[in-house]
Amino acid sequence: MNAKKKRLIYNLSTYAIVVIAFAWCQFLLNNGGMTRSLKGQLVPICCWVIMAVSLNLVVGISGELSLGHAGFMSVGAFTGIILSGWLQNGMGMADETLRLVIAIAGGGLLAGIAGVMIGIPVLRLRGDYLAIVTLAFGEIIRNVMNCLYVSVEGRGLHIDFLNPSLPGKLLLNGPNGAVSVSKISTFTAGFILVMLSLFVVLNLTNSRSGRAIMAVRDARIAAESVGINTTKYRMMAFVISAVLAGMAGALYGLNYSTLVAGKFKFDQSINVLVFVVLGGIGNTMGAVVAAAALTILPELLREFSTYRMLVYAIVLIVVMLATNNPLLKQWFSNMTNRARGLVRRDKPAADGEGGNPA
Amino acid sequence: MNEDKRRQRTKMVTYPSGAVIPERDLGKSPVLECSHLGIEFGGLKAVEDFNLVLGRTEIAGLIGPNGAGKTTIFNLLTKVYQPTHGSVLIDGLDTQSMTVVDVSKAGVARTFQNIRLFGNMSVEDNVRIGLHNQIKYDMFTGIFRLPRYFSREKQQHEKAMELLDIFNMADLADAKAGSLPYGAQRRLEIVRALATNPKLLLLDEPAAGMNPHETEELMDNILRIRDSFQIAVLLIEHDMNLVMGICEGICVLNFGRVIAKGTPEEIQSNPVVIEAYLGKKKEAGQ
Ligand SMILES: Nc1ncnc2c1ncn2[C@@H]1O[C@H](COP(=O)(O)OP(=O)(O)OP(=O)(O)O)[C@@H](O)[C@H]1O
Ligand SMILES: [Mg+2]
């Protein structure tokens, strides 16, 4: 099997996992086989999957450490909430789907601009400054959001800092966050957004630009020596990642009737990093599975109530040991090889047909 | 056949400026001109007053004991280091304000003494990355799979396979670059450098870690590459067999200074060179 075919199979199975999971959830929803709490988790799961896929682009594919990914989510969330609130109350737009699309696009755009603003000074430097600056960015955004007041009056928006007495209908209420948000996010929108981010990230990695990004990761000086502008490609990965995180943020923000900036604290950034690490750094499919599994897990562990976080921690440690232990890795690869051998024996014609790479 | 060719000595002639180049390159402007090139690392003069002119299709050698400053010269030529003295002209263009990327675009490609491949990627992808500025399409074309994506990818694939064929490595295209044996990794670095369509190829110890048979093959291949691509090659090497076998001009460096320059015959019989090498041998023996 050649590398191209392997990559194609990997990409298709990544899409397939998402499609099957979506179809299965839809089936459960229609047949009433889903608990209330799990139902409420559907949109957040999509958001965290997109967060993991986009952070993996920076950490795994571009090889930079970013510790403020939740900051971009926050920018996207509050942009989306304000946009949607303004369109609804100021412009009288009733169409929820259109409002959601505009809010998500706006959230992605603003998060992308934030990404450019951070990237320009930091990504020109060599070294691990990105981790420090993104960490600070996440904290700064949270503090700024805590002081921001936005209201809509007529067709206009009032934006003020530290001044709660704004005329009109309040959208953002400082430390109390966004209030009376109209919940327009849907599971289907989440599914589409997950597919979109997979499409962007997987296609990017299998293109000239993606190879340049990975070249910079693997050997920076060598990449420069063959004429690759390293700043440009680090920037590309970082900004695309920020845009996707902003879109996920808008979807997340419009899923709740209220939202405070404290939702996007440093530990959320670390959580997303955990998804990426557990999924196997650089492995997009792994990031999807890890993000979905680890978002559901605490819900499933609800019965254990007091021991919930303990069990969660143990699961994390076991998975990390399992994925890093050479003996266990060997065992897994033996098992998968054996499984492959079985499949081959079942279909002897498969190799002959393999002559045509898709 | 190549064996004979190697023994056939190139006739070297002197430019009006005093530089010596092969006679066949005389009508063409030199591909590289360094004058009074130098760099200091906090007081240590790693390279001092380095002068070199390379003909269009010349194969030249840079030799000298460990720590003489050979790799540092490559880093100066490619702007990994900014020279503190002197100038470098590539194809007549001053590199003063150029970056590493500009130098690559100006037509200089290199390999590294401590191999720097894109180890997690396939052999073919390593070559495709070398083609970065040769066969282009933008990010949006890549993400949205516009028609250009498919035609350019096909071109890249075909060109990469053609280049890998130089070293008979086409069947390794899908292997992970980092998992290749040492010799193959060095050859892949040369292929990747050639993919950038250079005018000048800098090879830093290309035969290091190769067995005598592989080295022999490498010598043939360097000659073949020079002939088919019509490019100049400047190589650093400790294997005297290789240097004396294929280099037309040789420059000997010791403690950052040029101590001798000339044809292989002249260098082999130069007492200063013999002393530099023998002196070092004595030290090593003690
Ligand atoms: N970045 C640097 N900072 C300080 N000193 C340096 C630097 N790069 C090289 N040097 C010094 O310059 C001198 C020349 O080093 P260089 O690597 O060019 O030697 P070389 O001739 O390539 O040796 P070798 O045959 O071992 O590869 C050495 O003394 C080295 O320590
Ligand atoms: Mg060296």
SSE diagram, text form:
The complex is a heterodimer of chains A (358) and B (286).
Chain A: H1 3-30, H2 36-61, H3 69-90, H4 96-122, H5 129-146, E1 148-153, E2 156-161, E3 169-173, H6 187-205, H7 208-218, H8 220-225, H9 230-253, H10 266-278, H11 284-300, H12 308-324, H13 326-346, H14 349-353
Antiparallel strand pairs in A: 1-2, 1-3
Chain B: H1 2-7, E1 12-14, E2 20-22, E3 32-41, E4 44-54, E5 59-63, H2 70-77, E6 85-90, E7 93-94, H3 100-106, E8 108-110, H4 123-130, H5 139-143, H6 147-165, H7 182-195, E9 200-204, H8 212-229, E10 232-236, H9 240-246, E11 249-254, E12 257-262, H10 264-268, H11 271-285
Parallel strand pairs in B: 5-10, 5-11, 8-9, 9-10
Antiparallel strand pairs in B: 1-2, 3-4, 3-6, 6-7, 11-12
Helix pairs in contact in B: 4-6, 4-7, 6-7
Structure commentary:
The complex is a heterodimer of chains A (358) and B (286). Chain A contains 14 helices and 3 strands. By secondary structure, chain A is mainly alpha-helical. Chain A has a 3-stranded antiparallel sheet with strand order 2-1-3. The termini of chain A are close together. In chain B, 39% of the residues lie in helices and 23% in strands. The radius of gyration of chain B is 19 Å and the shape is globular. Chain B has helices at 2-7, 70-77, 100-106, 123-130, 139-143, 147-165, 182-195, 212-229, 240-246, 264-268, 271-285; strands spanning 12-14, 20-22, 32-41, 44-54, 59-63, 85-90, 93-94, 108-110, 200-204, 232-236, 249-254, 257-262. In chain B, helix 4 (123-130) packs parallel to helix 7 (182-195) and helix 6 (147-165) packs across helix 7. Chain B is α/β, with parallel strands linked by helices and 286 residues long. The longest helix of chain B is centred in the middle third of the chain and has 19 residues, at 147-165. Classes of the chains: A mainly alpha (358), B alpha/beta (286). The A-B interface holds A 2-4, 199-200, 203-204, 206-212, 214-215, 218-219, 221-229, 236, 282 and B 78, 80, 99-101, 104-105, 109-110, 112, 116-122, 124-125, 128-130, 132-133, 135-139, 141-145, 149, 152, 156, 173-174, 192-193, 195-196. Bound molecules: adenosine-5'-triphosphate and magnesium ion (MG). Magnesium ion binds at residues 70-71, 113 of chain B. Adenosine-5'-triphosphate (ATP) binds next to helix 2 of chain B.
